[in-house]
Amino acid sequence: MTRKTVSVITESQYTVKADKTIAALLCVEEGSEVNERVVRLSAGNTTFVHARSLSPLERMPETMKEQLMRADIPIGRILRSHNLETRRDMTELEILERQNTFDGIPVLSRSYKIVHNNHVLMWINERFPIDERWSL
Amino acid sequence: MTRKTVSVITESQYTVKADKTIAALLCVEEGSEVNERVVRLSAGNTTFVHARSLSPLERMPETMKEQLMRADIPIGRILRSHNLETRRDMTELEILERQNTFDGIPVLSRSYKIVHNNHVLMWINERFPIDERWSL
């Protein structure tokens, strides 16, 4: 859309223990290990998307685990390289105001689950700032 | 993109017997039954996409077969309603000239396979006319 190269900038990446909320989201046991990754997608000097993903490590093939935790590889490319058959279940689509994701600019927020073998492989929340940056 | 409602217009729909080419494309026996569907996607009075799909009927769940052969339901929605886990393998991306799909206007043509359980569930060719109709 921008005709510029999009870069994936990893803002943070941790292994966390699933609390009650995360456990319910991913259908895993409380306390199990989850990779939490926050990235921003930018083109030129503009950030267009803020994305947060939660992936239960117990369900991840070993090579995928490495890719996921290593670097700035987009999720789509990781799934692609493993030839995984998946479906995406959209769970939420809403406008949120006064979030600090984009310094208080209202965002369109959507969440979905990437499902493989009927298990949640990844939960993703994407946020798109609602302002004139999309008038390309 | 157009901010108008997109309609799926079925141009033709047949059950055909797989010839050598189709059999190779779908990895089925020659002579097996295949659903061939040609649709156009329009918004306003403009056609934006011409799509041809080939689906081996032997691999189709019964209810899906009915949806596919019945009416103007987009493929994505059909897959969605069956909760199928799939992957898409892109096979071709090229510019074709002097095709009658859009009265000789050059088209961007892409083909891909929708794969489920490591079998081709559907082969799809989409053609996008290369002209000013995309300046929205």
TrEMBL record, chains A, B:
Which classification does the entry list for the species? Answer: Archaea, Methanobacteriati, Methanobacteriota, Stenosarchaea group, Methanomicrobia
Q: Under which name does UniProt file this protein?
A: Chorismate lyase
Q: Which organism is it from?
A: Methanosarcina barkeri CM1
**Which InterPro entries does the UniProt entry name for this protein?**
Chorismate_lyase_/UTRA_dom_sf, Rv2949c-like
